[in-house]
Give the backbone structure.
Amino acid sequence: MRLVVRLRFFFWLVLLASPLRAADVLPLAGEWRCRLDPHDAGVAARWFGAPLPDKVRLPGSLAESNLGAPISLQTKWTATIYDSSWFFNPRLAKYRQPNNFKIPFWLTPATYYVGPAWYQKTVDIPAAWRGRRLVLFLERAHFTTRLWVDNQEIGQQISLVAPHEYNLTAALTPGPHTLTVRVDNRLETMNVGPDSHSVSDHIQGNWNGLIGRLELQAGPPVFLQSVQVYPDVTRQLAQVKLVVKNTSAKTVAGNVQLQAQAFNTDTPHQVAPATAPFTAKPGETTVELTLPMSAAVQLWDEFHPALYRLSAMLQPKKGVADQQQVTFGMREMKVQGNRLLVNGRPVFLRGNLHNGEFPLTGYPATDVPAWTRVLTVLKEYGFNHVRFHSWCPPEAAFVAADQLGFYLQPEGPSWPNHGTSLGDGKPIDQFIYDETTRMATAYGNHASYCLLAAGNEPAGRNQAKYLADFVKFWQTRDPRRLYTGASVAMSWPLVPENEYMIKSGARGLPWAKERPTSTFDYRAAIEKFPMPYVTHEMGQWCVFPDFKEIDQYTGVYKARNLELFREDLADHGMADQAEAFLQASGKLQLLCYKNEIEATLRTPGLAGFQLLGLQDFPGQGTALVGVLNPFFRAKDYVTAAQYRRFCQPTVPLARLPKFVFTNNETLEAAAELYHYGAAALPSTALTWTIKTTAGTLVAQGSFAPTAIPTGTNTPLGTVRLPLASLTQATHLTLEIAVPGTAIANDWSFWVYPAQLPALPKSDVYVCTRLDAQARQVLARGGRVFLNAAGQVVKGKEVAMTFTPVFWNTSWFKMRPPHVTGFVVDPAHPALTDFPTDAHSDLQWWEIVNRAQVMHLEDFPAGFRPIVQPIDTWFLNRRLALVLEARVGPGRLLVSSANLSPTEDAQRPAARQLYYSLLRYAQSAQFQPKDAVDFNVVKDLFETPSREQFSTYTKNSPDELKPKQINNK
């Protein structure tokens, strides 16, 4: 398989090496002259008429040449800072100094510049180009360009999505000429919204420069301006529309010939050529041809991404021929009720958001290998779809997605909710139409360009009408893809004209209020929508920072935010725990993603999900929501193969009513198989096993053989196991597998004794308050077990739930929860009767959900609790859920967790942990190594924390004052 992929990739590179047209090309990459224009004086001063003083290398950005201002508190960013008050905590003053400036809200570029910048290059036009049509091609500019040739102004273009092309035929004669390009990246030229991922500092950055292919192109005066292919899978043909542009003064006649051949497939197919005459008057003429594909046609989808290369030859009877090559796929996107169909087969979108994460350059990659690497990683994790949040990638992304079989949804380059709106008569209204039209022209032939939205989460009094009109406009103009008004959260209005809906209702875990199960789904959220429903921005579960990632920032951007968090962790005496925090919080994050994704897979009628995201979002306060970092590299607490067990075309599912049982119960779990593969599976008998963590087989079985159709979930049967034989606390794993394949999925569950053995009477003083008797017992060298649930004062401000931080606490002004799992030593003798891993898992839910935590700000440096919650990395408070200490001559065990000291059938895990802790307190192993003064412990239950978020100063400079915006 790898050999085939390599051969296909090699063939693809060969195709890319072929010219788009039979035209000469003069590359313009290299050194250019440059000058920044912060006061916008260059036009009036006629800078285009003299050599510019500085140097810059293009393609590239100003920051790559270290041009611009250093970063400081006065930097006027192109992004909304939702709440900066946390950054002005007095203890962070050292990070606001010029020699140690570390902004925590996003990555830090080397330099920063917003405004006009001038780029200039002298070119020598060959004599052989006399009489030819000459075009300046700038693959991607950011984002308003204005062009002069010598002293003559040519024009201006604005686009964030497509190449800027200038016809210079009349301006260039053989010999030397000076090209001067003024690039302006101010939103004043077109306000798409400061948080739009096309421009925002949250992600790729508001860079200034020119990237991708920069070249002068020479071609004939009569040429193919556009070749657009419209596949018709049902009739096994392709309609080809060619726009012939005649820049001469005479009518020209001739023939157009089409040839097409399949590639990126193991099945060769040479399409019969098609020929038609044309007559082109000066201006534009449209020629339409039908290309019969025959019964041998190769269809494109995620499983068989067969492509065709079409060569269109324009041959005038007199004059020079013009040739253009395009690629396309025979692919049909349709809607049937609430289902998405690709070539008539139901498809479920397992999507990821690409937000414009380019941490080395700050601007999008324009080369195919870079995008092939990213999409290959996504495919390895089981994804088949990418949404580009409020931006459109360069052509290379579509090329790579074509080859790998990805369904792409680019968007208009706007988040018209922050600083602008839709439907209110602002310039953005027409700009979205113009930009999506440019996208259709530039990328419309790509098979991977399957879906389109106007943008993300719009605002505007008339937005619903605007979006409805947008959908209807594109439905009639280009049937090659499906259209939706915008990607939206719950409160946005429904647009009935949408061909599919992207909405946030079908997401989340109900675990803040409900005991975890794997029976819930999202059918109630989607049942009122008549069109396919794709879940908007699902996930957003946080993990602690991976400080090993910092060294990977070798380009323009540096992870000063992560440096700040790392140093602050060290200031709180926990630098040595960074890796443990990462691993433990990562396992909890993975557990949440697994359960949320599985809930979407078992939801009848759901059309897919878009995850936010598989990789971290380094902006908006630093949202560490990925199992990958912004470089699309793994953080090493989960492999792609492990992730793919619950996220791929075929996934076994089990509906467990709970994950914690007692041994007087019977496990019953309904099993089903989610299957959206290339075809139905033959009659298959799936198997199941139940094993201990040591691998001991407890039970096994198989389901009755059944045919597995594609595009649906198939019930398999029920796993049933009486648990009476399990007399001790046991961690078990249920696995369901498709024999003979790598397809398998698993679920942990726990069994506890329904009746615990009685503990012997002992001298352990058990109390719920640190009262006078507890002090006396400790003073005489005795033992105290303080079950302090609900009594904590120092740490009361820290909100803990079972699930981790959502997005990040800074972006939402410290909205709870604040804790991202916990670390624990599984081998600690206090947990002998409570089997656990080193991180939170589902048996802990009833113990930690909404539990109080203790803030150990006055405990000795280096003190480590038995169970240590992981605080938000913005505050890094040293916390505890269970701790032990020597207090004078006595020994103290303290828990603020939600334990259950009495027989409680509804909370067997909480009862089991209480039993394990009390048994430990009675044992000879109860030998705390750290000493703590009694008053320090007592302070936990009497005195509030000194450092609380609510006490942070609001005296922020104007540039960083909190902005109240409707963003999430």
Summary: The two ends are 43 Å apart (CA to CA). The chain is about 15% helix and 30% strand. The longest strand covers residues 252-263. Residues 221-319 form a domain with the Immunoglobulin-like fold (CATH 2.60.40.10).
